[in-house]
Design goal:
It contains 27 helices and 21 strands. It has five domains: 4-145, Hypothetical protein af1432; 202-351, Beta Polymerase, domain 2; 388-465, Ubiquitin-like (UB roll); 475-627, no CATH class; 635-709, 2-Layer Sandwich (Alpha-Beta Plaits), CATH 3.30.70. Helix 21 (467-498) crosses helix 23 (524-532). The strands form six sheets. Strands 1, 2, 3, 4, 5 and 6 form a six-stranded mixed β-sheet that branches. The chain has a four-stranded mixed β-sheet with strand order 13-15-14-16, with no helix packed on it. It is an alpha+beta fold.
C-alpha cells in the first residue's frame, strides 16, 4: 500500500524540505478527518488522496497542488469547511480544494443537472487557477484505476463521463500521457470484450511489428547520421483507444489501420526537424496529402511536431513524427510542464506555447459561461469545444485562426470578435462572395462583411459548430425575445387596463407589489414578460391589479370578457413573441384571431383556419386581434395552381411572380397526370391586395387552368 513516506521521498527530489513538511502536515489533517471512512475497495479512504498526490508528484507539481490533492475530499465528505482549510493551510490551498469539490448542499431535480452544475463550478474555478483541473484529472485517473470495485452501472457512467469530458480536457491542456491512460481505462470499462480483443491482436502482431520496426529504425538512424543530424529514433506504439476509434470511424479491420507502424524522431533544434523531414522523404516515398506541419501552426493545446506518412519497406505504411526534445516533453506533460520545467531554461517555442493556448481556451470558457444561463447548456457547449478537428484559415491581414472542422464563416466571424459575429451579413472566401453557411477548409482567406443594423439570425444555429458562436447567438436571441415579450406584455396589459378605465402607469405601487407577490414574481418587467410569453392572461392580471384589495381569485380557466376595445393591433414588428400559424398563413387584410401559447406568446390564425375548431374548448386562451393600419414586413402565403404539364412552365410562373415584386419561398409539385400538374407555391406578400394582384397575373396565363389560395 502506498504510504506518506513513499510520497515524501518522491517529493524531496524536487521540492524544498519545508514545503514537504507542509504536505506532511496536510496529510495528518486529512487522515484524521477521514478516520473511519473506507473506499469501495475496502481500503482506508486516505489511500485515495495519497495516490492522487502521487500522480501529481510524477508531474513535479508545486506543493500547494499536492496539498490540495491530499485534502481534496475533506470538504465534500467530512465536517471540515473551506474556512477551516483557509485558516490552517492558507487561502490558495482552500480555493484549490473548493474548486474540485462537487456541489452537495443544493437540491437538483435530476442527476444530470447536479453533475452539470458541479462541472460548471469546477470550470469557473479552473479559469481562476488552472491547477484546479490538474488536481481533478489526477483524482479522476486514480478513480478509473480502481473503478472495478463499483457496480457495473456506476462504472459505465463514470467511464462515459471520462471519455466525454475529462480525457478531452486533458487533451486540450496537452497532457498526453494522462489522456492516453484515461482513454484506455475508459475503453476497458465501456467495451471490455472489444478491449480484450484489441489487446490480444496487438500482442499477436507484436513480434512481426518489432522485427519490422528494428529494420526501419536502423535505416533511419544510418541515413540521419550520414547527414550529420544527431537524432534519437523511437518506435511508437498506437494506444488502444486511438486504434479502436480509428477502426470504428473509418470502418477498418485491424490489419487495415494505416499507422500501425510508427516512429518518432527527436532532435535538438527546430531547423533539424525540417532537415530530418527531408532525409526521411528521401529514404522512403511520402504518401501524398499526409504531411502536417504542427510546428509552424501548433495545435489548439500547444502541441508541436511534423507528421508525415511514408511507403516503408515492402510498401508498409509508416507514420513518422519529428520534433525536438523540448517539444516531446511538452507533448507528454502539456500545461503541467509549466511546473515540471519551470526551473529550467524556458523558451517561447517550448513551455510557453501550451500555457498561451490554455489561457486562450480559459478566456473563451469565461465568455461562454457569461453567455449561458443554464448549466446543462454550458456543459453541452464545453463538450462541443472539446472535440476540435482543426481547420486553419487566414484573416485578410494574414493572421491564422484555428477552427473546428466543419466551421462556417459565421464561426470565423465570432472567432474574430463577438461584435463581428453579431453584425455579419456576408463573407468573401478567397475574394469571392460566399454564403455565411459555407464550411471552411484549410488555407482559405476569409473576410467578413458586416452591417451596423445586422443581428444574429436563428437559422445560424443550424450550421455553426463552435461553442462561442452558438452561445453568443443563443444569448442574443434570448435577450431579444425577452425585450420583445416585455414590450408585447406592456401593450396587452395596457389594453386590458384601458378597458377598465385605468392606465398602467396609474396602478398604485402597493397593488403592483401585491400582485407580484401573488404570482411569485420579482419585478414589473418579469410580469410583463410573463404576459408577453403567454404564461399569464392580461385580462386576469388587469382584474387582479384592480381588485387586489378584495378577496383575490386566480382562475386560469376563466374566459376573457369579449371587450372589443381590448383588441390588440398586429404590426408585424413584434418579433419572436408573435408568430403566424403555418396551417393557414394569415396575411394583412384577413380576419384574424390570436391564440395565447405558453412560452411562445401569441399565435395568429385566420378566421377560416380549421385549427380554430380544435381550440374552441379553450376560450380563455383566445385574444381579440386585428391588423394595425401600418403593418410592416412580408408574410408567407400558399397559392395552388393547376397548370398545363409542359416544359418551362415553372420558369414562366416564377418570372410572372417576380414581376409583382414577390419572393418565392418554396415550390412543391403535388400531383401530375400527364396533361396537368398541381403546383403549390409559398410566396412572401405584403397584404391581400398584393396577393390578389399576383393571382390575377397568373390566372391570365393560358397555361393556368385554375388558381386559388391555400386554406390550411
Amino acid at each position: 500500500m502506498y504510504q506518506i513516506e513513499d510520497l515524501c521521498v518522491s517529493l524531496e527530489t524536487y521540492l524544498p524540505h519545508e514545503q514537504v513538511a507542509e504536505i506532511y502536515r496536510a496529510y495528518h489533517f486529512s487522515a484524521e478527518a477521514h478516520e473511519g471512512q473506507f473506499r469501495a475497495t475496502g481500503e482506508p479512504y486516505i489511500v485515495h488522496p495519497l495516490q492522487v498526490a502521487e500522480v501529481l508528484s510524477t508531474m513535479h507539481m508545486d506543493f500547494q497542488s499536492i496539498m490540495a490533492a491530499i485534502l481534496h475530499d475533506v470538504i465534500e465528505d467530512t465536517t471540515v469547511t473551506k474556512d477551516d482549510l483557509a485558516n490552517r493551510f492558507g487561502e490558495e490551498v482552500a480555493e484549490l480544494v473548493d474548486g474540485v469539490t462537487k456541489l452537495t448542499k443544493i437540491k437538483f431535480e435530476t442527476r444530470a443537472e447536479r453533475q452539470a452544475a458541479s462541472f460548471r463550478k469546477m470550470m469557473l474555478a479552473m479559469v481562476k487557477d488552472i491547477r484546479v483541473i490538474i488536481v481533478k484529472l489526477a483524482d479522476r485517473l486514480h478513480n478509473m484505476r480502481t473503478i472495478t470495485a463499483l457496480g457495473s452501472a456506476q462504472q459505465k457512467r463514470i467511464a462515459r463521463e471520462t471519455l466525454d469530458i475529462y480525457a478531452p480536457i486533458a487533451n486540450r491542456l496537452g497532457m498526453h500521457q494522462l489522456r492516453l491512460e484515461l482513454e484506455d481505462l475508459g475503453l476497458s470499462v465501456l467495451y471490455p470484450m472489444r478491449y480484450r480483443t484489441l489487446t490480444d491482436a496487438v500482442q499477436k502482431a507484436g513480434g512481426r511489428r518489432q522485427e519490422m520496426m528494428q529494420k526501419i529504425n536502423a535505416a533511419l538512424n544510418e541515413r540521419l547520421k550520414s547527414q550529420q543530424i544527431e537524432a534519437e529514433v523511437i518506435s511508437r506504439e498506437k494506444h488502444l483507444y486511438s486504434l479502436y476509434r480509428k477502426m470504428k470511424e473509418k470502418r477498418l479491420s485491424f490489419s487495415e489501420v494505416t499507422d500501425m507502424y510508427a516512429c518518432r524522431i527527436l532532435v535538438q533544434e527546430v531547423d533539424q526537424c525540417y532537415r530530418a523531414l527531408g532525409v526521411v522523404h528521401n529514404l522512403y516515398k511520402p504518401v501524398p496529402g499526409k504531411f502536417k506541419d504542427y510546428i509552424a501552426i501548433p495545435k489548439a493545446n500547444g502541441y508541436q511536431s511534423l507528421h508525415t506518412v511514408l511507403f516503408g519497406p515492402q510498401g508498409v505504411p509508416l507514420e513518422v513524427q519529428i520534433r525536438t526534445f523540448d517539444m516531446n516533453r511538452m507533448a507528454d506533460a502539456g500545461i503541467s510542464a509549466h511546473w515540471l520545467y519551470k526551473t529550467e531554461r524556458q523558451t517561447q517555442e517550448t513551455s510557453n506555447s501550451a500555457q498561451v493556448k490554455a489561457r486562450e481556451w480559459l478566456r473563451n470558457l469565461l465568455e461562454l459561461q457569461q453567455n449561458t444561463v443554464d448549466s446543462l447548456e454550458f456543459l453541452e457547449n464545453v463538450k462541443i469545444d472539446l472535440f476540435p478537428d482543426e481547420v486553419y484559415v487566414f484573416t485578410p491581414k494574414g493572421k491564422i485562426l484555428e477552427l473546428p472542422r466543419g466551421a462556417s464563416a459565421v464561426d470565423f466571424a465570432y472567432a474574430v470578435h463577438t461584435d463581428v459575429g453579431n453584425s455579419c451579413v456576408a463573407a468573401r472566401i478567397d475574394r469571392r462572395l460566399a454564403p455565411l453557411s459555407t464550411p471552411l477548409v484549410n488555407g482559405q482567406t476569409v473576410e467578413i462583411v458586416t452591417s451596423p443594423g445586422a443581428r444574429p439570425n436563428p437559422a445560424f444555429l443550424n450550421f455553426v459548430v463552435t461553442s462561442k458562436a452558438r452561445a453568443n447567438i443563443r444569448a442574443y436571441l434570448k435577450n431579444q425575445k425577452r425585450e420583445q415579450s416585455i414590450e408585447l406584455g406592456r401593450r396587452l396589459l395596457t389594453k386590458a387596463l384601458n378597458a377598465q378605465d385605468m392606465d398602467l402607469e396609474e396602478v398604485p405601487a402597493k397593488k403592483l407589489e401585491a400582485v407580484l407577490d401573488l404570482y411569485h414574481l420579482e419585478s414589473k418587467q418579469q410580469l410583463l414578460q410573463e404576459i408577453g410569453l403567454g404564461n399569464r392572461i392580461p385580462v386576469l392580471v388587469a382584474k387582479q391589479l384592480i381588485e387586489i384589495d378584495k378577496a383575490p381569485t386566480l382562475d386560469a380557466a376563466q374566459p376573457i370578457p369579449p371587450h372589443s376595445h381590448t383588441s390588440l393591433g398586429i404590426k408585424g414588428t413584434e418579433g419572436m413573441v408573435v408568430t403566424f400559424a403555418k396551417c393557414c398563413h394569415p396575411i394583412p387584410g384577413d380576419a384574424i384571431q390570436g391564440f395565447v401559447s405558453a412560452g411562445k406568446g401569441i399565435v395568429i390564425h385566420t378566421d377560416f383556419c380549421k385549427s380554430i375548431a380544435d381550440f374552441r374548448h379553450r376560450p380563455e386562451k383566445w385574444i381579440n386581434v386585428y391588423w394595425d393600419t401600418e403593418v410592416e414586413g412580408e408574410f408567407p402565403v400558399e397559392v395552388r395552381c393547376q397548370v398545363a404539364d409542359q416544359r418551362g412552365v415553372l420558369a414562366l410562373l416564377s418570372a410572372e411572380i417576380a414581376k409583382e415584386d414577390a419572393n418565392i419561398i418554396n415550390v412543391h409539385i403535388e400531383e401530375r397526370d400527364g396533361r396537368w400538374s398541381a403546383l403549390k407555391f409559398t410566396i412572401d406578400v405584403r397584404n391581400r391586395i398584393h396577393l390578389a394582384s399576383i393571382m390575377r397575373r397568373l390566372k391570365s396565363l393560358a397555361i393556368v387552368a385554375k388558381i386559388n389560395r391555400g386554406k390550411g
